[in-house]
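agent: user wants the structure for Deacetylvindoline O-acetyltransferase from Helianthus annuus. delegating to structure tool.
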Amino acid sequence: MYAYLHLTMLAIYTMNMFMAKRFGRIRQLHTIISQETIKPSSPTPLHLKTHNLSLLDQFAPRFLMPKVFFYKHYNNGNTSILKKSLSNCLTQYYPFAGRFPPSSTSYVDCNDEGIAFIEAANDSRIEDFVTNRNQDETLDQLLPNNKVGPDSLIKVQVNYFAGGGAAIAVAISHKIADGYAAASFINHWAIVTRGLSPTNPNFISSTNVETLKIPEVMNKGTYKGNFIARRFIFSNSKLRELKERVLTMGAMPSNPTRVELLTCLLFKCVARASAMKSGDFKPALLAHCVNMRKKIIKNSPEAATGNVMTLLATKIASSSEIMLHEVVAELQKEKLKLDGLRNEQEVAQHHLNTLTMLGDEESESFISSSLCRFPFYGVDFGWGNPVKVVTRYPDVDDNGVIFLDAPNGDGIEALVHLQKEEMPIFEKDEELLAYIEDW
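agent: tool returned. relaying tokens verbatim.
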């Protein structure tokens, strides 16, 4: 199988080079080599066959959240090692190999049906993807197709590039894992692949199956497609400049973090772009995701698996000229309120209240989520750390941003998702341009 795989790749690359020379390159060719289902190496015990989702899991959307890891030094090793280690991981992460029952999403049927695993060859070079700032169809080639394993809670696609290198895409249902839990699972798989023993997960679940009424904001219907995503880099030196500027404007409840500062800057610029497009200011709502593990999980919070996060929100109701330091201060005041939440039930109620606010059609919402300092850049399958990690913004009709550590470790990469008509205005905002790193 190993020899056949690489002979197939060689044939694809040779054919593409011939066609490019003779007719000129028209498009990238992406070829699926194989697809199969990876199941747990040991069957799940009967007493673990039902995993009741936590209250916060039930509030989470069902769509898959993909991460793509680019490895320049992939050594063309036998992928059977990846498959075997993944199978071993699923014995510990047994809900991930299960399925949602047709009639409910309040629990997972841990039936060991497994996860989709695809291998594909791409005639482009890895550099073409690493330097791409746009979220477009070229990135989508590297992601598992929706038609493959449609009921799978996780899908994996290993992509091989012309000239060497590989990208591993892992897409996980948000309903079973937030960003931190996703990073933990993928690292667990990588550590097992290297022959080491990682920390096992601790699944957060409800004591009984309770179906909650999900706010309408979570059921928006079909994605209309009128949105576009762009990546922007903010270096640490630029973020320090931003912090110094904000601190000179006025007193803060606490020392603002890089993510808080950048969230508020982008929120202000997006609100301004929206007002310029429509010709009128609309009340603006900023919602920011916060990891709650250290606040409500007493033992080994880093092992808590599921959705252990909430949203905090602040609303600007009456002014088209948003004062940056005031937004930062308001966001911090809301963050301090989280200190009073003592358990998952209280966090879930807080989360529900914020989701209800997001359902206000009279306001323009901007949702911020940070994956910074989560161990994505430490995912090492034996080929070294990835040269770049990319996430894809989900197909939703929302303005928002997802933050990741910058690939070179210097600063933050922001994946900004806006309406197509607003993005050109946003990209020309002088206040924003003062802090963007030109790359």
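agent: one observation worth passing along. The chain has two domains: 2-203, 219-433.
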